[in-house]
Amino acid sequence: MVLAVLGPICRESTPECPVTSPGSIPTSALTMCGTTPLYNRIVGGEDAPAGSWPWQASLQRFGCHVCGGSLINREWVMSAAHCFSSSSVSGWRVSLGRQSLQANNPNQVTQTVAEIILHPNYDSDTSDNDIALLRLSLAVKFTDYIRPVCLAASDSVFNNGTDSWVTGWGRIQEGVPLPFPQTLQEVEVPVLGNRQCSCLNGVGTITNNMICAGVLAGGKDSCQGDSGGPMVSQQGAVWIQSGVVSFGFGCARPNLPGVYSRVSRYQSWINSHISSDKPGFVQFTSSGLDADSSYTCPGLPAPVSTVPAITTTTTDPPSTTPSTQCKYFSVGILFQLLIRLPLEQKKM
Ligand code: 4AZ
Residue 240: which CATH number? Predict the structure, then answer.
């Protein structure tokens, strides 16, 4: 791992190195979203340094990590709908400011959940609209280790190849849990256009509400336990969330990019539920023509000739997760085995 670190590093709260400078941090999500005061730049690597992704949340049920999430303002966390079997808040807690799941976390804050809002059009068969909002019981105070991420505004464009980072405490390979002390992991993956992603994952599986990312060679991806967590891209000084970890055919397999809920499609839905302290929506722009707009494969509708378009239609798998001593189960993998594999075999 190579780290390029600019500025002082506060690993722990000490009198010389306080976590917050009282009075110096503004509290609105709009004015301070997407900033990482401790780590301004990271190159490669796997263990995420403390404070590098200060919006990362661990969603826990009865003390077990189940899913990731992202802090979007003082009292709301965004995650995936498939992490929840209902909108009951019973047993759920959200942990913020955490570097690891097992070691000492001096900057950590844990909150109970007051409300869970699942997207009304979430489809557990296709994973379409796999997005949820959690309202915390108490607003959290922003620190160097706890801050909101900016969200991709509805007019954002993420061309094929857009550099992105995904973070989480999920498995490090299919079937391999993150080892002790379960330090937050980060991985860099490029966006893979919806047309190509449909061709790879199966025509009809990737909707306009999804965004894909991954490397064709495999080896870099999100996995079980990362679900609900953020995929972000940097634009200038801020980090903008483009995706929510949703599903994939296995993890890090060659030619099978991970699939994420496309955050920019949900600006009005999110704003309809958050009346004060609106999240910071920022337009992400990509320069040039999207190479994906001319990508094609058998069964895929012909590319739209004028505007670089995003793609396709419906159908495919969801997923769920936990860690530590908690038992894992993945609806996603079960779904793939029962539905997708037989379908694949029929095609062959
Ligand atoms: C899961 O089972 C899961 N490779 C999440 C993400 C991905 C695959 C599986 C993406 O929760």
Answer: 2.40.10.10
